Amino acid sequence: MSGDAMTDSGGHDHLTSWREREASLYRVFPYGGLALGTVLALVAPAPRALATAPTLAIALAAGCWVAWFITLHPGWQSRRGLMTVYYAGLLAFAAVLVAANPWYGFFAWVGYTHAFPVLRTRWRIAGVVTTATLVATSQGGGLSVVTSHLPLWLVLVLFNLVVAGSLSWFAMVAEQEDARRKRLMAELGEANRQLTETVRENAGLHAQLLNQAREAGVLDERQRMAREIHDTLAQGLTGIITQLEAAEQTRDRSADWRRHVDNALALARESLTEARRSVRAVRPETLETARLPDALVELGGRWSALNGVRADVATTGTPRPLHPEVEVTLLRAAQEALANVARHAAASRVGLTLSYMTDRVTLDVRDDGTGFDVTGQPVPREPGGGYGLTAMRQRVTQVGGEVAVESEPGSGTAISASVPALPGGAG
After folding, report:
1. What is the rounded average pLDDT of the residues 401-425?
2. Segment Disordered: which positions (predicted)?
3. Domain limits at 374?
4. pTM for the full model?
């Protein structure tokens, strides 16, 4: 990229230098042609030439014409209409001088060099043809060649037209190439400007995306910790409070009081262990040592012993290892559903069914409790504002699953959590 840029820069500098030299020659040529024609007219007068004094006067007028339009007012070159007037005057002076003395063909030749800078494209051909005619007349010895040697004059005109036409064609090609180069440079400059703006915008967008990703990561971690705290500390503390309240009510009965206190201590130890594992984002201990169906059986047995409600756990289909996050989600869903039954349902029986299907795994939790109006209050709220089924829905949705709740007052409640059967390692 840098090498190409250096090449382009070098070519552009070379072209600029050539344009500057061309502009200098463009201004010098008319005076050189006039001077050379005048010197030759004085040193070697042509036959039937005009007298010296009028010829010099015309040459001086031609020089003043060029000086006024080209030397004294260089900015007029961009004014095409004014330059057309100048060029017409230049050819008129050249025609008069060639008629006065053929040596001024050197001045007439300037018509070639000035046609391109000052004339529009459609006028250049006329300018070149006129200049070729004047130069041919000069080469033939003046106006007499037209009357006495017409074929020779026509040959000279044709020759000059071929030469001038060839040079003009190359000049037009060069001009078109120069225009194309300028257009490409302008487009490249615009592309570079847009690229710079795009890079600047991308840098800002990249910083914005980093901030959003950082904020999203913080939010995800907060939500994870909120769910884990609810699934471990909140449920554990609720169970401990329930057991201690039961112990308070049975303190006159030593055996029942001791059982409730022991249950509260066991819940406290289990909750502390699970809280520590949640902080380290480690799987629940039951899934570390057993498969998901066995972990649900163990969960149902502990819950039944604590709450005095029968809990039946069944598995359908062929159990297979699932992705750790999927198994954690189903276990936490079962914990949440049983916690809701203990807090709200006043049920006498609960059934948990884990169903393995081809591409999905579903956990159904049904109770025969009081139920509630799904249309009026779809999510039973916990004391203090509740997190309950909201946490379950968030967990299940995060792994691509969905939660359905069915219930009617007096007819119990059914909660179904269905998740993709993402495969995992050996269980």
Report:
1. 89
2. 406-427
3. 288-427
4. 0.43
